[in-house]
């Protein structure tokens, strides 16, 4: 870890920083005057003959923007290619350079008329942000001397401040920094997988709320140290709790990793390093951020994977420290921003809803699967999502521009002009395509051979209701009642719930709405409701299990549903039923509420249908009994699949292991549909399978005739239905099952391609 502890430290620069602060926060001056003042302060305070700032233009040219000591006529006239001369060398190699005599350096490039004939010593540091070089800050002297480490460190600290000024666009626009046409691009294209289609451009926001640093320079070093020490103590205490709890379950290697992590948190080396930066006059958060920037530089250079892992631990620790420094106003810095793209390792559904308040446009994840609830919410919000983008959170800086291409499963960081032009063209094409699709949408959900498929919407948010009035849509097949709960600040009382459910019924007009009672727990956390920490939350205290243990919650919800459906049809289903006795218990609570409503002379619902989510495999073995107890079934393929294969739907490591079109799952679905068809009860598939054209095709071929679909997938599902001859595809699928074709998916895809079915 020594390399870490030896990070450069500025030792004594508070005076320079104080003077810089006066300039930056003082009377309104032009950006040019600002740069001139900065170079003058540096030259005077560091007692050097020359100080210059070069800024990268168009990704290839380093242009002299300000100088103290060189010929002022050379400003904006002197331009060096990236990599040319000593300044170009600093930019290209992305590291400081210190020389006692420039003229004997191999890369020395003499520039006519600039006035550096007799200058010998040189120190230059890159001005960088988020791994991109924005320019070079250099000092020079007539005497031959080697500048001290401390002097270079002061330059690095100031370069960080300059990077913020340049990135803010006040000196030159960001587009001017980026490469122009015909020049090698500085934009970064990264591949991932799409979890929701769509195309957006926006400003990156790291999901470490608080890392957007507003104050770079401190007012009082002593106070700043106190703030920092307090934040460190709080971080260490919270980590101790966190690790203490995990230690109870950790074993072997896991345990030693946690121990090492705890040791790092206590390690004085890196904390000392940050404290020294604070002593130079940086604000505590800027000092932590500077440490992070150095860390990322090390990370990029190191080939050693063990070292990289440890550096990532430090990245995590420093993020925690930033949290403690900026306090609890975690999302405050997003107020008033236009179009943000959230970048996260992973994200809970409630956290995404939190960002929804700040007009989130797109989401980029390092981990995350399409059946995870965060993806479901993103679809409901119509936010494009690209997942499994390796180390994106380390590559991006808050405020960077980013394109999220959910159609191609690709991300572009700091797009150049060419990327932006292509983006705009794609947006137009997309819009036209959707206009055509949407025009067709209302036409029909009838197959080529005349079979009508009943299509419903999965709804949780207002945006999901988009197509509800279309003739081809039969109603709301799944209303996830927990979503409005997740958006609320406090637990919604009966009156609030009644209003919410009433609004949904009103929006659906006379079409049926299938209300699912609260499915909280798992990855759906209500911030205001304390739940015990489950080791396996997906299989833990969740959904109906909470409802039966805390009947007051279930009773209030059922009361609100009964009130909202007064005089109308009410369909209620219970989630995560694993045994019929749970359904019977839940049904008793529903009857109790109905009785109370009757006693209080409320107008009862005109009709009542009660069903369950079929999503726990144990219930499949009680199907006949179940069918005699319910009016309908809703098949939750997301959970049924994860419990069938014991494969956590949120775990991205499992993505290539299991597939809903594996023969065993297909056979399970076939078993279910055959059994249900023998009864006169209805079944609708509402899991994500129904929203994926190829999987929905398999469902129809197996015999399912009712699907409940995410609104963003509805056009694609309808198109697939309009393209098929159901009898033929059913025959084909039955045959695949009969001959036990393990490569079911590939066979079905080939069939769809051969028969011009849009999938
Ligand atoms: C399911 O499990 O398939 C389902 C629709 O419920 P949810 O995704 O909300 O768990
Ligand atoms: Mg479910």
UniProtKB/TrEMBL annotation:
Its cofactor is Mg(2+). It catalyses: L-histidyl-[protein] + phosphoenolpyruvate = N(pros)-phospho-L-histidyl-[protein] + pyruvate. It is found in: Cytoplasm. GO terms for biological process: phosphoenolpyruvate-dependent sugar phosphotransferase system. Transmembrane segments: none annotated. Belongs to the PEP-utilizing enzyme family. This is phosphoenolpyruvate--protein phosphotransferase. It comes from Candidatus Nucleicultrix amoebiphila FS5.
